[in-house]
């Protein structure tokens, strides 16, 4: 069943089966539970995680592997069970971007990825502790780091 929703990106039609349920909300937005992941061509590869309950709430997100090809997380077993994940392909992992007016200062949150199950459309934001990942990585620095990493790999390093 398709339903109309007013979001920060305008009015959108969302199939009820595509609604992502955040049972515990997202930190700072615990009262909001229903979201959709939109991918407008105009902002590709940036997607938007939009609230279907508060049209003022939308998070710019991106697949972290596009920025940091060696990005890797290990999900705790209880999270995998909650999301009904049997294999890595059962989930979409996205990271929230902060986009200030000065585009040079865009940051990506690698320490608290959002995990969305393709099996049950549940989502959760996971805080990864004790890693090299931080809440704010400058996008330009990560892209430069990633390019260096890929260059080393291409040259047999």
From TrEMBL:
Q: Is the keyword Lipoprotein in the record? A: no
Spell out the InterPro entries in the cross-references: Flagellar_assembly_factor_FliW (IPR003775), Flagellar_assmbl_FliW_dom_sf (IPR024046)
Question: Biological process (GO) annotations?
Answer: bacterial-type flagellum assembly; regulation of translation
Q: Which UniProt keywords apply?
A: Bacterial flagellum biogenesis, Cell projection, Chaperone, Cilium, Cytoplasm, Flagellum, Translation regulation
Kindly state one GO CC term assigned in the UniProt record: cytoplasm
Tell where it localizes: Cytoplasm
Its domain of life reads Bacteria
Please indicate if the UniProt record lists Cytoplasm as a keyword: yes
- Name the Gene3D superfamilies for this protein: BH3618-like
Q: What does this protein do?
A: Acts as an anti-CsrA protein, binds CsrA and prevents it from repressing translation of its target genes, one of which is flagellin. Binds to flagellin and participates in the assembly of the flagellum.
Recorded hits in HAMAP family, A to Z, give:
FliW (MF_01185)
Subunit arrangement? Interacts with translational regulator CsrA and flagellin(s).
What family is it from?
Belongs to the FliW family.
What name appears for this protein in its UniProt entry? Flagellar assembly factor FliW
Q: Organism, per UniProt?
A: Defluviitoga tunisiensis
């Amino acid at each position: 069943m398709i339903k109309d929703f007013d979001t920060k990106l305008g009015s959108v039609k969302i199939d009820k089966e595509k609604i992502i349920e955040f049972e515990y909300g997202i930190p700072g937005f615990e009262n909001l539970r229903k979201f959709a992941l939109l991918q407008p061509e105009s902002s590709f590869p940036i997607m938007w995680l939009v609230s279907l309950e508060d049209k003022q709430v939308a998070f710019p997100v991106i697949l972290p592997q596009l920025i940091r090809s060696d990005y890797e997380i290990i999900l705790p077993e209880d999270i995998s069970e909650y999301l009904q994940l049997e294999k890595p392909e059962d989930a979409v992992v996205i990271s929230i971007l902060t986009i200030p007016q000065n585009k040079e200062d865009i940051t990506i949150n690698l320490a608290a990825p959002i995990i969305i199950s393709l099996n049950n459309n549940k989502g959760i934001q996971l805080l990864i502790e004790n890693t090299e990942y931080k809440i704010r990585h400058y996008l330009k620095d990560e892209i430069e780091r990633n390019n260096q990493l890929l260059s080393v790999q291409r040259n047999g390093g």
